[in-house]
């Protein structure tokens, strides 16, 4: 794993080079990094930040971004723009995250029912993810079959689909709407945690 | 013009003093006058007072233009204090060396011819052969030059040898030679102080005069004196030729008041004259000075002499006769005494400085009054609004309200043409009351009592009542009181936004510079005259920026280096 980590990090570095170029022009606008005093302006500023984070995550498929803005597989923070020497102060970062959670664009990652200062980035909302997954079940004729969550995330059959490599815990969240609509049933293991799903 | 001598200096511009010569005092920024006319190229230099001369060292080319004036040639000195623009002057009257004087001098030599004879006697104690100019030694026996003992006449009677004849034949030639009375060295006729031993040559001035008469062409070529001419008319040329023979010269003190210098030179001159008399009157006294200086009594018998003067004027004492530790002690003593004099004079200097200050104040007030009398003048009006002049506070406040109004208008629209006043663009004024308060008190109220901030505010509130409608008291951001013309705040805001769209990321300082230059250039195109550089003060700009940020027109970028401002281009409200 360590050996493979090195090249991926390098890839991240190279990709971060065009990170700012692939992001909207506001990303290199210095006032973005200072909390604006005017309330109306600040609302738009936070929205701009949310857009940037979503775009950033979607582009690089960063499912989880930690509180300080660094994706799990990278060490470059989105809140730190080296090219214009600006970074967002911590207080303002918190404000952005709370707004993002409120808008259901981010979801706190929970491990043993505790927040670990990491967030799932939902560039599509959970309903959309659910319908995409349902689409896959229909396309691949997996209806009435038991499919493990691991399969959904990692198997070659999901490669073409956007939810490929989605963390399993996030997948479970995304599958919940299907269960609610009685389109699917969860199969639990001996500890009561969901492990597979059967879509009717 | 003969009184001025060329002065040799070191390359660094310090005077080279003679033997026995001591410098007493120095002063800066002095100009020289001959008679009433300035001497060209000698208007800025240092002046040294020494025990023998007054030396002028030019600031520009000390090696070429320096002059000296013998104390010997000075009859008396006078002082005229500074008055307004005229600097303090020390007037030096020169002893006239004209023909009449010269004749008498020649007569003197004729009559003295027989008197001056050389008498020699041998001291019975140390066996040294002494010389004396007195013929009859029986009445007054001189003291031995070697051991300082005055012997009994009977003891030297046998050794007395009067050689007047020999001397007489020599007399004529000797009269024209500059013989040192102390060491008998025959000096150059132009020299007044012996080159060998530094003794003053008492009859040198007469000899010098004669020599000058003989060689009329003999003038120091290094001495290039030119007087400043007022005009070129013929009369003046005559006057100038007269001026050459004028009997006084002047030193003009440009920076100091010269009083100290005057006092010091007066003392030096007095001392010099006393020494002069001593040396010429009797060899006895002279010898006493040399060998038994400060001697109070010999064997209980009091010695006659005016040694008190020496104590009073310590700086002229020569150290020649003392060597080693005694001389060091003596010079130290002298130094202390000099310091004492200096300190005393410093106090008087301080006094004169205070006088000067009151004089300036008076001048300032007089000027103000005279300006007020001529109301037609467009210059900055400066009425003296003294609290005491008004019966009650209302009147006083009204008056200062007018003054503040005038002050603000003139201060921020100075040098704008009347034509530009018609154009609405250049007539925007905003000034915070705090700034105005400081400026007004500093420039208008000093000396006549400062006003309080409350009075300032009250006065500003009276503008409308007094019919002064151009400036109004307004509040920016609901907290800062400003005096402003109508619409000027919006104008300034527009201006700032315009500049920031051209130069995003400006900080306050850069913006202040830009906006002031910018309004200048705008006005320059209109009027081609300069406007005041700081028409917009930083305080006003800060408040306007704050307002813009609060309104959402501007975005801020806070850095350690300060706040940078950006136009709001992304997040329109």
TrEMBL record, chain A:
Residues 1-12 have a biased composition (Basic and acidic residues). It comes from the Eukaryota. Keywords: Protein transport, Transport. One of its GO terms (biological process) is negative regulation of transcription by RNA polymerase II. GO terms for cellular component: ESCRT II complex. Residues 13-25 have a biased composition (Polar residues). One of its GO terms (molecular function) is structural molecule activity. Residues 1-25 are annotated as: Disordered. InterPro entries: ESCRT-II_cplx_Vps25-sub, ESCRT-II_cplx_Vps25-sub_N, WH-like_DNA-bd_sf, WH_DNA-bd_sf. Belongs to the VPS25 family. This is ESCRT-II complex subunit VPS25. The lineage of its organism: Eukaryota, Fungi, Dikarya, Ascomycota, Saccharomycotina. The gene is NDAI0D00430.
From TrEMBL, chain B:
It holds the Pfam family Vps36-NZF-N. SMART domains: ZnF_RBZ. PROSITE patterns: GLUE. GO terms for cellular component: ESCRT II complex; late endosome membrane. One of its GO terms (biological process) is cytoplasm to vacuole targeting by the Cvt pathway. InterPro entries: GLUE_dom, PH-like_dom_sf, Snf8/Vps36, Vps36, Vps36-NZF-N, WH-like_DNA-bd_sf, WH_DNA-bd_sf, Znf_RanBP2. It comes from the Eukaryota. GO terms for molecular function: phosphatidylinositol-3-phosphate binding; ubiquitin binding; zinc ion binding. Keywords: Cytoplasm, Endosome, Metal-binding, Protein transport, Transport, Zinc, Zinc-finger. Component of the ESCRT-II complex (endosomal sorting complex required for transport II), which is required for multivesicular body (MVB) formation and sorting of endosomal cargo proteins into MVBs. Component of the endosomal sorting complex required for transport II (ESCRT-II). Belongs to the VPS36 family. This is Vacuolar protein-sorting-associated protein 36. It comes from Naumovozyma dairenensis (strain ATCC 10597 / BCRC 20456 / CBS 421 / NBRC 0211 / NRRL Y-12639) (Saccharomyces dairenensis). The lineage of its organism: Eukaryota, Fungi, Dikarya, Ascomycota, Saccharomycotina. The gene is NDAI0J02640.
């Amino acid at each position: 794993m360590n050996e493979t980590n090195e090249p991926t990090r390098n890839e991240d570095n190279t990709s971060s080079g065009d990170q700012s170029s692939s992001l909207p022009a506001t990303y290199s606008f210095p006032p973005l990094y200072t909390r604006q005093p005017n309330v109306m302006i600040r609302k738009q500023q936070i929205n701009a930040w949310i857009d940037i984070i979503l775009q950033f995550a979607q582009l690089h498929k960063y499912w989880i971004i930690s509180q300080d803005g660094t994706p799990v597989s990278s060490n470059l923070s989105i809140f730190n723009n080296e090219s214009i020497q600006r970074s967002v102060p911590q207080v303002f970062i918190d404000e952005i995250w709370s707004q993002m959670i409120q808008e259901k664009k981010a979801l706190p990652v929970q491990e043993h029912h505790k927040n670990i200062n990491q967030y799932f980035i939902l560039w599509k909302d959970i309903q959309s993810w659910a319908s995409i997954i349902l689409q896959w079940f229909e396309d691949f004729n997996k209806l009435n079959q038991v499919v493990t969550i691991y399969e959904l995330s990692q198997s070659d059959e999901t490669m073409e689909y956007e939810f490929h490599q989605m963390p399993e815990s996030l997948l479970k969240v995304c599958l919940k709407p299907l269960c609610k609509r009685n389109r699917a049933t969860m199969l639990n293991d001996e500890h009561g945690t969901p492990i597979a799903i059967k879509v009717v | 013009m003969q009184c001025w001598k060329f002065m040799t200096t070191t390359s660094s511009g310090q005077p080279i003093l003679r033997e026995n010569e001591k410098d007493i005092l120095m002063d800066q920024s002095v100009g020289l006058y001959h008679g009433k006319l300035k001497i060209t190229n000698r208007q800025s230099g240092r002046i040294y007072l020494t025990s023998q001369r007054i030396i002028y060292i030019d600031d520009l080319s000390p090696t070429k233009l320096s002059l000296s004036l013998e104390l010997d040639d000075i009859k008396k000195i006078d002082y005229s204090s500074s008055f307004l623009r005229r600097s303090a002057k020390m007037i030096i009257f020169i002893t006239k060396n004209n023909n009449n004087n010269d004749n008498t001098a020649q007569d003197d030599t004729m009559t003295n011819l027989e008197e001056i004879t050389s008498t020699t006697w041998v001291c019975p104690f140390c066996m040294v052969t002494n010389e004396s100019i007195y013929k009859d030694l029986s009445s007054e026996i001189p003291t031995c030059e070697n051991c300082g003992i005055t012997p009994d006449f009977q003891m030297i009677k046998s050794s007395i040898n009067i050689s007047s004849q020999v001397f007489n034949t020599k007399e004529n030639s000797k009269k024209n030679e500059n013989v040192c009375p102390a060491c008998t060295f025959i000096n150059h006729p132009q020299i007044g102080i012996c080159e060998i031993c530094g003794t003053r040559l008492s009859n040198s001035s007469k000899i010098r005069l004669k020599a000058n008469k003989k060689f009329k062409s003999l003038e120091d070529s290094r001495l290039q004196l030119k007087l400043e001419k007022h005009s070129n008319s013929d009369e003046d040329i005559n006057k100038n030729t007269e001026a050459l023979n004028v009997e006084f010269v002047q030193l003009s003190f440009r920076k100091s008041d010269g009083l100290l210098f005057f006092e010091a030179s007066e003392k030096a001159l007095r001392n010099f004259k006393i020494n002069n008399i001593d040396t010429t009157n009797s060899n006895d006294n002279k010898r006493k000075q040399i060998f038994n200086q400060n001697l109070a009594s010999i064997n209980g018998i009091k010695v006659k002499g005016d040694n008190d003067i020496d104590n009073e004027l310590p700086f002229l004492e020569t150290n020649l006769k003392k060597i080693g530790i005694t001389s060091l002690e003596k010079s130290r003593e002298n130094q202390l005494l000099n310091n004492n004099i200096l300190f005393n004079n410093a106090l008087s200097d301080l006094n004169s400085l205070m006088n000067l200050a009151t004089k300036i104040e008076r001048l300032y007030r007089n000027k103000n009054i005279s300006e007020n009398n001529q109301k037609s003048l467009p210059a900055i009006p400066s009425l003296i609004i003294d609290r005491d002049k008004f019966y009650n506070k209302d009147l006083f406040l009204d008056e200062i309200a007018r003054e503040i109004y005038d002050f603000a208008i003139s201060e921020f629209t100075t040098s704008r043409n009347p034509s530009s006043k018609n154009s609405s663009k250049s007539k925007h004024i905003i000034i915070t009351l705090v700034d105005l308060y400081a400026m007004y008190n500093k420039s208008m109220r000093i000396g006549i009592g400062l006003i309080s901030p409350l009075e300032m505010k009250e006065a500003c509130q009276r503008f409308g009542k007094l019919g002064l409608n151009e400036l109004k008291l307004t509040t920016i951001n609901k907290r800062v009181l400003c005096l402003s013309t109508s619409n000027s705040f919006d104008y300034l805001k527009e201006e700032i936004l315009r500049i920031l769209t051209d130069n995003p990321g400006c900080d306050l300082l850069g913006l202040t510079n830009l906006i002031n230059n910018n309004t200048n250039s705008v006005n320059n195109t209109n009027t081609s005259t300069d406007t005041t550089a700081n028409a917009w003060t930083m305080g006003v700009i800060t408040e306007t920026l704050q307002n813009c940020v609060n309104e959402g027109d501007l975005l801020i970028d806070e850095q350690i280096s300060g706040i940078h401002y950006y136009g709001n281009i992304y997040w329109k409200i």
